[in-house]
Amino acid sequence: MFTNNLKRAGVLALLTAGLALNAIGQTKTPPPDPKIKVGDVAPDFTLTNTDGKPVSLHDFKGKKNVALAFYVFAFTGG
User: Fold this and answer.
1) Distance between first and last Cα of the chain
2) For the chain, which end, N or C, has fewer CB atoms within 10 Å of the first or last residue's CB respectively?
C-alpha cells in the first residue's frame, strides 16, 4: 500500500510539473509591430519564380500591380 501511494504521488508530481511547463510555454511575448504599415511603399526585394529565375519587385514598377500571397505547403510543419 505504501508503494502505491508513492507511485500515485510520483504520477501526480509529474502531471503537475507537465502542466506547469505547458503553462510557461503558452505565455509568449506578443510579436513586434511590423515595420511596414498598410499604405507604405513596399521595399524592393527579389524572389525566385517557379522556373528558378530571380524576379524583383522593381521589375514591375510602373507596369503592373503586384499582389503577394504567402502560404504554407502541406506537410512542411509551418
Assistant:
1) 48
2) N
